[in-house]
Design brief:
Layout (H helix, E strand, L loop, with lengths): L1 E5 L20 E2 L2 E2 L1 H10 L4 E6 L3 H8 L8 E6 L5 H8 L1 H4 L4 E5 L2 E3 L3 H11 L3 E6 L4 H4 L2 E3 L5 E4 L2 E2 L10 E11 L20 H11 L4 E5 L4 E3 L3 H13 L10
Helix pairs in contact: 3-7
């Protein structure tokens, strides 16, 4: 199995740290933040990884090289202009199109059972399984609602056809981690978009799949997750790592 890590962004909310350093290399708990995602994937035996790069991408390449020092085989997808998540994924299609693959962000720390995610994904037979987490502010930031069988019925305001009543849904938030089948690329056509190269997988692709009745599933988990998009969130993560409140099993492998 292969994986893709999103690492092309400018990291505007982390300035001035990101004026000379790409967000993916901003240190968190003594290591560049992207290494948490890389080590998680390695822990579960996923060693072939593609990373999209744009802003200060050369520095990411210089630091990680071909991934050999981490026991990985890293390929890079250079974006001359930012393509957003959908466009970046579509550009990496040649690398990913030969089987099930994982997509994860470079600016999160997450510890979830990838083996269980793969098992559920295979049992359900959907094109996409999204790793979800409970959050009391789900409505504020964008709720994803699943039925009892964990099938996604509502996604950021978009509804699947013939959905059950609202009372049968459970609300979650998306962690940014997803397990996908190559068939997802069939829903990444470029019709009716002013900029076909640049689009969001959450704003364009998933709503399109949902409204057409395609099977999307959620994988709820309750372990540690932390977004690293602001200095305050980095400080929070570092405190929990130092206090032992964020125990990451993959750091000991």
């Amino acid at each position: 199995m292969k994986a893709m890590i999103f690492a092309a962004g400018h990291g505007e909310r982390l300035r001035p740290m990101t004026e000379r350093l790409p967000k993916a290399l901003v240190p968190v708990g003594g290591r560049p933040m992207i290494e948490y995602s890389l080590l998680l994937l390695r822990h579960y035996g996923i060693t072939e990884i593609i990373i999209n790069v744009h802003y200060l991408g050369a520095k990411i390449r210089e630091h990680l090289l071909d991934g050999k020092k981490l026991g990985l085989k890293i390929t890079y997808s250079e974006e001359k202009e930012l393509l957003d998540t959908g466009g970046g994924l579509l550009q990496a299609r040649p690398f990913l199109a030969d089987g099930t693959f994982v997509v994860i962000n470079s600016d999160v720390i997450i510890d979830f059972p990838l083996t269980e995610l793969i098992e559920q994904h295979q049992e359900r037979g959907g094109i996409a399984t999204l790793v979800l987490r409970p959050d009391p502010q789900a409505d504020l930031y964008g709720a994803i609602e699943t039925s009892a069988d964990l099938r996604i019925r509502r996604f950021l305001g978009h509804k699947a056809p013939q959905s059950e009543s609202a009372g049968s849904f459970t609300k979650y938030m998306f962690t940014g981690v997803q397990l996908l089948e190559p068939k997802i690329f069939d829903y990444m056509g470029t019709e009716s978009r002013s900029d076909p190269a640049k689009f969001s997988i959450t704003k364009v692709t998933y709503p399109r799949m949902l409204t057409r009745g395609e099977k999307l599933y959620g994988f709820p988990f309750h372990a540690y997750w932390q977004d690293l998009g602001t200095p305050e969130r980095i400080q929070e993560a570092e405190k929990k790592l130092a206090d032992g409140k964020a125990r990451l099993r993959y750091l000991s492998s």
